[in-house]
């Protein structure tokens, strides 16, 4: 909606410094988001390295190794949201070890889990 209002102002020739700033901010957010997309394959590598002790992380894993749910079950949950999972992975609950993941690594892991739907 804001972008449409800004576009209308541009068409009318009413360009203010504030509007240019808003447009620049929106453009940069689109650029940053697209250039830093989560990497599913890196997420799978992280899952196989860190998560196998407690979760079933892939279909080739034979049996559950802990009480934690399989990643495919997490991905198919009705309220699953990769962005919320990313935030959760940055500050996990007490039963889950803090792996010290970066934001990028947490997003990669969440993207991998989302791919298992």
Give a concise summary.
The protein is an all-alpha fold. It has six helices and no strands. It has two domains: 2-35; 40-114, Cytochrome Bc1 Complex, Chain D, domain 2, CATH 1.10.760.
CATH architectural grouping of the largest domain: Orthogonal Bundle
| CATH class label of the largest domain | Mainly Alpha
Provide the low-confidence segments as ranges.
Answer: 1-7, 31-35
Task: Tell me, rounded to a whole number, the average pLDDT.
Answer: 78
Share of β-strand residues: under 5%
Helix tally equals 6
CATH topology of the largest domain: Cytochrome Bc1 Complex, Chain D, domain 2
User: What sort of overall outline do the alpha carbons produce when their principal axes are compared?
Assistant: globular
Biggest sheet layout: none
What is the number of beta strands?
A: 0
How many structural units, i.e. domains? Answer: 2
Output the helix-strand order: HHHHHH
What is the terminal separation in angstroms? 32 Å
Please compute the radius of gyration using only Cα atoms.
Answer: 20 Å
**Helical content class:** 55-70%
Give the class from helix and strand content and strand pairing.
mainly alpha
């Amino acid at each position: 909606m804001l972008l449409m209002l800004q576009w209308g102002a541009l068409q009318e020739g009413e360009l203010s410094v504030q509007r240019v700033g808003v447009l620049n901010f929106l453009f940069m957010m689109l650029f940053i988001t697209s250039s830093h997309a989560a990497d599913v394959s890196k997420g799978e590598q992280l899952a196989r390295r860190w998560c196998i002790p407690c979760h079933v992380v892939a279909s080739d894993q034979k049996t559950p190794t802990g009480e934690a749910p399989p990643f495919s079950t997490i991905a198919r949950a009705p309220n699953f949201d990769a962005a919320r999972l990313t935030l959760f992975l940055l500050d996990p609950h007490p039963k889950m070890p803090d792996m010290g993941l970066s934001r990028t690594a947490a997003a990669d892991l969440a993207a991998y889990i989302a791919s298992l739907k």
